[in-house]
Fold:
Amino acid sequence: MAHQPPLTDAQGEVRELTAADMLSAGPASQTLPTNLQQKLGLGSRIAARFDGQGLSNDLLELKHQPVRPARFHGEDEAANPILNHPQRSPP
Structure:
């Protein structure tokens, strides 16, 4: 990989991050010190939202799936501008 400039300059100003910066960064759980991970609560805030909701297994990650708007019980699909957008392909 080509040499990348430092993320900060001499005054501590952070430069704009590039796609190469993002790709070279590892997961926070592997790159951040343990005490900082604990302070940030990595994953714990999201996990807390689902605590007590009856989820017993991890949710599957559906990669490469088209994004579709949520549908709710009793929703009038004809009145939903997202579901009826002319550029939207049917599910």
